[in-house]
Design goal:
It is a single chain. The protein has about 140 residues and is an alpha+beta fold. It has one domain: Beta-Lactamase. It contains two helices and four strands; from the N terminus they run E-E-H-E-E-H. The chain has a four-stranded antiparallel beta sheet.
Length: about 140
C-alpha cells in the first residue's frame, strides 16, 4: 500500500491511497469484497475543500493489476481537487438560491404587512377626519 501527499500551490490536498494489488496486502479491510469482484488495484484520491472532506475519487481495476505512474496519480489528484471545488460551488450555489428564495418570501410578507398597515392608517385617518368634522359641527351648534 502506498500513501502519497501532493502539493498544489498552497491548496490543501488529501493523500492518494494506492493499493497496487489487493491480493498481496495482508488483512486488507474489505478483502472478501475485493476477491468476490476480482478487484485488483485500488487508487483513492481524497476530495478536500478548506480542510473538509467532500468525497473521494476511487479507481479500481478488475481482473488484472494496473501500475499507475506518478503523473497519473498527480492527474487523479488534480481531478479530485477540481471535483471537490465543483461540488462545493454547487452546494454554495444551492444555499444561495435557498437564501434568495427565503429573502423574497420575507420581502413579500413585509410588503403585505406594510400594505395592511397603510390601509389601517388610511382607514383611521378617515375615521379621525369624520370625527373632527362632527366635532366642528357640534362646536358651531354650541
Amino acid at each position: 500500500m502506498n500513501i502519497a501527499n501532493g502539493s498544489n500551490h498552497g491548496q490543501e490536498q488529501g493523500p492518494i491511497i494506492h493499493i497496487p494489488d489487493t491480493h498481496i496486502v495482508p488483512d486488507l479491510p474489505g478483502a472478501q469484497l475485493y476477491a468476490t469482484h476480482d478487484i485488483r488495484t485500488i487508487v483513492v484520491a481524497s476530495m478536500l475543500y478548506e480542510g473538509r472532506l467532500v468525497g473521494c475519487l476511487n479507481i479500481c481495476t478488475f481482473g488484472e493489476v494496473r501500475h499507475f505512474t506518478d503523473d497519473e496519480l498527480t492527474m487523479l489528484q488534480g481531478l479530485a481537487d477540481q471535483a471537490a471545488l465543483a461540488i462545493t460551488n454547487a452546494r454554495l450555489f444551492e444555499a444561495m438560491q435557498q437564501e434568495l428564495t427565503e429573502r423574497r418570501r420575507v420581502e413579500s410578507a413585509l410588503e403585505d404587512e406594510r400594505a395592511l398597515l397603510a390601509r389601517r392608517v388610511d382607514e383611521r385617518t378617515v375615521d379621525l377626519s369624520t370625527a373632527n368634522t362632527q366635532l366642528s359641527k357640534s362646536a358651531k351648534v354650541i
